[in-house]
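I have been asked to look over a protein record a colleague put together. This is what I was given:
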Amino acid sequence: MVGVVRGVVFDLDGTLVDTVPLHAKSWVETCRRLGLPVPPVEFVYSLMGLRALDIARLLCGGENAEVALRVKNEVYLSLIGDARPVSGAPEVLRVLKGRGLLVGVVTSSSRHVALRVLEVTGLLGFIDALVAGDDVGRGKPDPEPLLKLLGLLGLGVGDVFVVGDSRYDVDMARGAGVGTIFFLGEGVFGDPRVISIRELREILRFV
């Protein structure tokens, strides 16, 4: 059971918004546009959760990374009319805000992209602070983004729990020293509790 908390930190893509397929499609299209080898989509999916610039380096090479990221963001923004909140996410955020808890988002996407997605999906008004991939020198799984977000919220690692959908979210939270982690997906990590976003809504009844 979760103890008394003052805030909840969420990953964005795949956790609050159903956008991972759009990101993967955008990276594949970026490689095509730049005349680079098109990676298997399974490999692209395995990178989801890393900072966008780091993905660009891995897929397109360091010398092409900045250009590739600009192209990718352009492609992605052209697709986000199809972006939707994960089922149950708005209700969970509404419960959190109704209880006076702070809500933070740590995402590996670029800031302007993340803000636009939150706006399109109707979730922006629930968010108290956001740290994006271009706000930090080291992205997930490094704890830097989470620690920066906690500073913005005025909270400590013992005041929050973290909810994410990739091993990078789990490693970031562990590295920062957060004691409670909820993982949305298949159970592959042992100690993080594996749930769905709808189950989180039930857990919040006891927070």
User: Anything to note?
Assistant: The first helix runs from residue 20 to 33.
